[in-house]
Amino acid sequence: MNGTRRTIWLSAVLGVVAALLAACSSSSTPAPASVAPASVAPASAAAPASVAPASVAPSAAASPSQAASLATPVPSPTLTSAADQWTTSHPFKAAFIYVGAASDAGWTHAHDVGRLAVQSYFGGRVQTLFKENVPEGPQAAQVITQLVNQGANIIFATSYGYQDQLVAAAKQYPNVLFEQATGTEQLTNLAEYYGAGENGDYLSGMAAGAATKNGKIGFVAPFAIPEVIREIDAFTMGARSMNPNATVKVVWTNTWFAPATERQAAESLVADGVDVLADGQDSPTTGQVAEAAGLKWTGYDSDQTSFAPNAWLTATTYNWGPYYINDVAAAMNGTWKTHFYYGGLDDGFVIMAPFGKSVDAATQAAITAKEDAIKAGTFDPFTGPITAQDGSIGVPAGVTLPVYTPTGLSKYSISFFVQGVIGSPKG
Amino acid sequence: MIAIERNLVTPRWQRVALPIVSLVMASIIAGIVLAVSGHDPIGTYQQIYAASFTADGALTATFIYATPLLFTGLGVAIAFRMHVWNIGGEGQLYMGAVGASGVGLLCGGWPLPILIVMMALGGALAGLAWALIPGLLRAYLRTNEILVSLMLNYVAGLFMYYLIYDSTSFWRDLTSSSALVFPQGKNLLPSSDWPGILLGSFTLPFGFVLGAVLAVLLLALFRFTRFGFEMRVMGDSPAAANYAGMRTRRTIVAVMALSGALAGLAGASQIGDFGHVLDPRGLEQAGYGYTGIVVAALAMYNPLAVVIVSILIGALTNAGFALQGPTFPIGLVGTMEGIILFSVLGGEFLGRYRIRFGRAPARAPGLDDEPGAEVAP
């Protein structure tokens, strides 16, 4: 009896150890940290969830068509004689730090499309490097040092959480140029870049508002931070411009990329009776839930039609390529200056993904008209009067919020929900 | 039927030779994978070695990963040695970070030696308190500590997020302009940084020294004290321990508390040595608590071996980031790490046990009396 029991025990322990090995090898790819616990407990209810990330990644990897559809406005900066030192035998090195996997089919994928655009524009005179799944926090410092040691001339860090490490590195390595997406700090060799995703979200919201039949829309949202809050606000205002009674219910996931968690959040919204889903996550999981439930969906970051062809309405996408090409050219020419770039629909940085087949002509025309107004500068979603969730005045009449001011209310510091949002902006 | 049984004798040379043979096997298997996927195995190994130890800043970075793994590995080793399955190191680390950063913020400006002691105590006690929940439940209500400690990891994670993202807590920075854009914790005063020990260009974190000292103390505790003896007996045979009149419950609670305190110290070291701010996402992404289980298993629950293994796993993690890039996909990095870990664990297993086909044999009469050598009851 003891022998059998020992065998059972042994195999149980070995099973746990094997699961831990899997967890460990994914802990050096730490983004889906929430996946690790699930795989630790093969006997617990959490187990099935751990399958989701793997099933998303590979299918997302094979999407060259997205690259093609996003690279529409092609810039053509020219290299001057100042860039002659950069040759195929001595290439300029442009490095990228990704917070997720390059195959996430969302945020990081869009950046990687931009990196590939740089590579193909400059050919052998530029070598692009990247590190994916880099944790935000102290560990990022070493990844930056590794890139500098590998000879990186310019480093693009694509998430807000690297800010402290970037500021430190920019001071430590004055001869390397640094750029950070979505951040706020600027130094002579540290620039900031991002774009008005909220304008695209207003247009997505219009598509969602036109698509909902019961007026209930669900939003799977990553973090209760101003960047996401203003996207939800713009989305809600867009939805209510088409359907004044529409409401947007928000569920927070506290993660950019964790397909299992995103799935749970989306399913909880479906159970709550919404008939249109939206998300601000890095993966297209919400769309897969909508597709399975026969609902409609607006995506984010990339054209994700292929993940949910029937559910697809449209999405805000970011076209990082032209920006990266311009800045790499400036760096090679020696004309790079620090800056705070905030692109938009007008300069092709923000692009609306193609409409899904269920978006009717009248809705498309209304959205396109609004898009033209935003491009022309005659419409900004954050122009008052805007009523806040609790009925108070969010933005007074006649005021348009600035992008960023160190003090006072700006788009970069907005922390209230507008009327029509169900949920708390505190997470 | 297939039976797995313990080898009665484990020659001493085998304990040294096995890991080496396993590593060689791992390099051969990983080399085949590399060659098949179009990479130069030898060049890749040189790159791993350089990125782990010799490149500029590499050794320092290796110890950034090794330090928390040393603490969480020790915490797991001591608990698993007694067959108390504390999977909650992750959450105990979070609580330790909360405790240590709270103390660090409160006592900012105090003399550094006192502050270090306070922060370490704050982290250790917070981790200890968190571990007492599954410990007491296991000892007195016979709950399954694997499930309870695992689930409490999620609770601790959410608590940490609550402090920084969803509340205006003492830990949260509400004043700086960047905190308006993205919620963040308050930074400790720079004078609160734990002093690293500079050896040329290499910085040995203070926490690692502390962890190494604790490893020696733990080994002494295992081998030379009555408490350690009781732990070993209870681990090997709870019935014998009961019969001998040992206080099983008290020892379970004590072991759990010690294990949680060690994981809490990992959190304190994250604050004092490296982060200087409570950063829920960074801690969660790192997953040091779970990796600590692997470290402890590879070290066969021997505290001194945990010191070595934590450095090796730290080096491997660090090298992983150096390797990956456009021509070296992250999946290949994970595959290589998996092959190495699996070979080492598999080698240990094959050395310690033999697989018999056919009729189940009589059970081995004696118990391996070497401490720290148990894998399973």
Care to give the gist of this entry?
The complex is a heterodimer of chains A (427) and B (377). Chain A is α/β, with parallel strands linked by helices. Chain A contains 13 helices and 15 strands.
Task: Classify the helix fraction of chain B into a percent range.
Answer: 55-70%
Average pLDDT of chain A: 84
- What's the CATH first level of the largest domain in chain B? Mainly Alpha
- Which structural class fits the helix and strand makeup of chain A? alpha/beta
Number of helices of chain A: 13
Number of strands of chain A: 15
The CATH architecture of the largest domain in chain A can be named as 3-Layer(aba) Sandwich
User: Could you tell me how far the N terminus lies from the C terminus of chain A, measured between alpha carbons in angstroms?
Assistant: 53 Å
SS strand fraction of chain A: 15-25%
| Number of individual domains of chain A | 3
CATH class of the largest domain in chain A: Alpha Beta
Sheet having the most strands of chain A:
7 strands, mixed
Order of helices and strands of chain A: HHHHEHEHEHEEHEHEHEHEEHEEHEEE
User: Mind telling me which CATH architecture of the largest domain in chain B this is?
Assistant: Orthogonal Bundle
Rg on CA atoms of chain A, Å: 23 Å
Strand content of chain B: 5-15%
CATH topology assignment of the largest domain in chain A: Rossmann fold
By CATH, the topology of the largest domain in chain B is ABC transporter involved in vitamin B12 uptake, BtuC
Q: End-to-end span of chain B in angstroms?
A: 20 Å
List its traits.
heterodimer; A: 427 residues; alpha/beta; Rossmann fold; seven-stranded mixed β-sheet; six-stranded parallel β-sheet; 13 helices; 15 strands; 40% helix; B: 377 residues; mainly alpha; ABC transporter involved in vitamin B12 uptake, BtuC; 2 domains; two-stranded antiparallel sheet; 6 strands; 70% helix; globular; disordered C terminus
Give an overview in words:
The complex is a heterodimer of chains A (427) and B (377). Helices cover 40% and strands 16% of the residues of chain A. By secondary structure, chain A is of the alpha/beta class. Chain A folds into three domains: 2-61, no CATH class; 71-196 and 320-343, Rossmann fold (3-Layer(aba) Sandwich), CATH 3.40.50.2300; 198-317 and 353-422, Response regulator (Rossmann fold, 3-Layer(aba) Sandwich). Chain A has a seven-stranded mixed beta sheet, sandwiched between helices. The radius of gyration of chain A is 23 Å and the shape is globular. The model of chain A is unreliable at 20-72 (pLDDT under 50). Chain B has 377 residues and is mostly helical. Chain B has two domains: 1-39 and 327-377, no CATH class; 61-325, ABC transporter involved in vitamin B12 uptake, BtuC (Orthogonal Bundle), CATH 1.10.3470. Chain B has 15 helices and six strands. A two-stranded antiparallel ribbon of chain B has the order 1-6. Chain B has a two-stranded antiparallel ribbon with strand order 2-3. The longest helix of chain B has 30 residues, at 112-141. Chain B is globular, with a radius of gyration of 22 Å. Residues 366-377 of chain B have low confidence and may be disordered. At the A-B interface, helix 1, helix 2, strand 2 and helix 6 of A face strand 1, helix 3, helix 6, helix 7 and helix 11 of B.
